[in-house]
Design goal:
With 438 residues, the chain is mainly alpha-helical. The protein has helices at 17-21, 34-45, 49-75, 82-92, 99-110, 124-129, 150-155, 168-183, 215-218, 233-280, 282-295, 304-314, 319-338, 362-366, 387-418, 426-434, and strands at 3-7, 29-33, 135-139, 161-165. The protein binds iron/sulfur cluster (2 copies).
Length: 438
Amino acid sequence: RRETPLYIAENCTQCMECITACPDTALPNTAQDVSTVLKTAINNYVSSPDDRKKLIAAIPEIDAAAREKMKAAVEAKQSLPFNGIIREQVTALNHGISQKAKDELTTIMDLLPIAYGNVPAIFRSIEKKSPGEGGVFMIQVSDLCKGCGECVEQCGDHDALRMVPDTEELNYKLTSAQIFSRLLPDTPQKYLGLYDDNSPQNSRPAALRNHLMVRRNYEALVSGDGACAGCGEKSILRAVASVTESYMRPLYHQKANRLYEKAAQIKTEGAKQLAALKAEKPEAYELFKRTFAHIIMGLGGEDDADTAKRIAAHGEISDDEIIGGLGAVLNQDAFNHIKFQATDGRLDNGLSVMAMGASTGCNTVYGSTPPSNPHPYPWMNSLFQDGSTISWLLAESLLLNHARRSVAPERLAEMLITGSAKDISSTDYWDLTHLTET
Ligand code: SF4
Ligand code: SF4
């Protein structure tokens, strides 16, 4: 890259146009409390533990004084950079804080592009409603930027992004800001406005673009950064991946919590329910056991006779095995939905929420090949333009696997917990083992 976009925080309105248009994962962004930014800087950039303690104690003082300056600047429509305001407050501090510590803090703060003046949804409006609560917005141009200039075009008259020659000095500043941003927590909900990260479906469509302020959504597609931007494919894939992540992840977590609850119920009530079923309806008990053996234990065969042979060959299945097995499968599936972490570098948050399939082409090339494949989703290379066939097979396999390890076990657990297992019929057995409606 020969030119890089330079972010001019004072001009930014947080319209998100650049962030939605960028084909790469090159404009990570967030809104934060002023105190969070200060705390992160102090904890990670001030070397003396004693000075750190004193500076942390002084945060409310810096925050309050800085806030007054920020409000006055907004009121007067004056462009007063955030870093300068902080520098002034930190320099004026006493409390026996060493000059070295003040320099360490102001040096990192000077490298951070932070907006507050023209981002009313983050600072002015919140501050007006709840004094002391208004925050700051920042965009970091990351080293994944390929210098295509699309963001600058989108920003247009806002003039908050300008293409400038790529220099060592600029890269030092951008990299420092990027490293700092990784130390921050994710954007709190209060800065996401009418986009609700816990239930995106209830968000205002106009606020949906704010889903890209949440790190897990922004980083939903991490491969292909730097790829040719010619046909615009990369921007579309990134949009599909980030929106799917934002909508599906809360559902995955809700499901995980539901499964944990059912596993706990099976543990406490399952044995009693099973004993009652055995005593009251022995045929239903046998059918329930057979269904468990078929699906959970994997003893299902080619046909009924084959299944019966395989179950007989396995030997007696005890009630403890049924209860323990159901609980283990539910707990494992809950873990997979909320805790599973397939790759290094991001927090555990559950398994992938989507898969992609395509004919051989750009995305399969820039996606590279396993095991160095950077896709966080299952990926394969299909040669003869048969992408739709391969994708359909992928989808079928995922559905089948999901039905076996997730849907059918949960339904069996539900039958036992609610007592409806006494009504289990051969149709239920067929549906559960053949997954006709999953
Ligand atoms: S120049 Fe291109 S790749 Fe870089 S941040 Fe802007 S849109 Fe993204
Ligand atoms: S940099 Fe420009 S396009 Fe991006 S959010 Fe700010 S004003 Fe909008």
